[in-house]
Amino acid sequence: MIAIVRLILMGIFIILSSIVVLFVCLLRPRNVNNVHFAAQLYCKISWLLGVKITITGMENIPSGSCVYVANHQSNYDIFLLTGAVPPRAVSIGKKSILYSPFFGLIYWLSGNIFIERGNNIRAMQALQKTKEKMLRDNMSVWLFPEGTRNYGKGLRPFKTGAFYLARNARLPLVPVSASNYYTNFRLNGINNGEIFVRFLPAVSKETITAQPVREIVAIVYKQMSAEIAALDKKNSLSDKSILK
User: Fold this and answer.
1) How far is residue 20's CA from residue 47's CA, in Å, rounded to a whole number?
2) CA torsion, points 178, 220, 90, 139, in degrees to nearest 10?
3) pLDDT single digits (tens) 186-216
4) Distance, CA of 142 to CA of 86 (rounded, Å)
């Protein structure tokens, strides 16, 4: 019963909030702050899901443009993790999102960037244009280097696109770790616990440009894995098993 009521309320919230986001995006199409506005609105649904979000490490965010890399658990990330998306940050998503009814239009008008997976030449061209836009507009990007959802089963191997983007743009890279929630999350659960999101210290642009990309990938992967494990220890979702 809880799940049914929750799904109905979520549906109403998503429709109403999406209308608001679409209206704002139509007033200022492709504005660099549209994503932050949408993220702050969509994350309000977390209380409907019975989840508390705690964000730490904001002091590690650089003052200018940077590349954020975060772990990606499920489609619920759009409601549970988007509250951490800083101002002037957009995401990079697969081009097929553009063809999703209604949401594709919102995603494009919000100023997000599309990349064509499976076509290396076009993907590299998109990353080059992204680099130019970041430097021109003082914009940051938020990526999921795993490339797909991990469903709470641990980090998948990282793709290197985000790291090459930071290297080519000579910008710092900020790892973002979120505690695992997916395996314990239940729509029927009244209290779905707390999710911890932490911004780790940035990898400086000097380090990005001086060391081989594969080494940076390995270092960031290890850092994020260790941080996720540490967050899980304090995460009531894992330790207290309150989600039933």
Assistant:
1) 19
2) 130
3) 888 888 889 999 999 999 999 999 999 999 9
4) 9
